Model the fold of this input.
Amino acid sequence: MRDLLRFLEGHTDDVVEDLLSHMKIASKEQDYERAARYRDRLFNVQKAAEKK
Done:
């Protein structure tokens, strides 16, 4: 929810950086399902940013 608010406020780059960081951490911890969720969120944020 916090990421959505930040995105809507125009902080897209910050949201992308945070999602990438969380995805890398999850992957390093071999929590691939969690990493995939972050990957999917990242994809959706980037897709929405293109439409802005």
User: Anything to note?
Assistant: The mean pLDDT is 93.
